[in-house]
Amino acid sequence: MNFNPDVIAILANTVDIFLRALGFLILMRILLSWLGPRSQGGIVNFVISTTEPILAIFRKLPLRLGMIDFSALVALISIDLLRGFLLKIIFSFL
Q1: Which of 37, 40, 58, 83 could disulfide-link to 71, CB 3.0 to 4.6 Å?
Q2: pTM of the model
Q3: Which residue, among 60, 55, 61, has the nearest Cα to 79 in the 3D structure?
């Protein structure tokens, strides 16, 4: 089955940008947890509401070592692995 290479490239770029943006939002969430947001403004609420469904999944796993919660780090690694896996699958159609 032949697919249009332009469509494959657009799909790959969309997946790549989406998952990289999600990783960036999780990094922002990590920084917000360390700095303690002074206000619950628009950007802070957006970051929290976007990342909470994903981080909630990883918080169910035993990823806490004392006071340190590694769920966000495992989420970042998982998103990066998922991104690589999906891009390999998408590019296999070329």
Answers
A1: 58
A2: 0.87
A3: 55
Q: How many domains does the chain have?
A: 1
Whole-Å CA distances, 63 to 34, 42, 71, 81, 87: 18, 29, 6, 18, 28
Distance CA(77)–CA(12), nearest Å, equals 19
Residue 84 phi/psi, 5° resolution?
-60, -40
The SS3 of residue 38 is coil
Q: How far apart are CA 67 and CA 87, in angstroms?
A: 36
Q: What is the pLDDT of residues 43-68, one digit of tens each?
A: 888 999 999 999 999 999 998 888 88
Looking at the DSSP assignment, which residues form a beta bridge with residue 69?
64
Which range of residues forms the domain containing residue 12? 5-91
Q: Report which of 8, 4, 23 is spatially closest to residue 80, judged by C-alpha positions.
A: 23
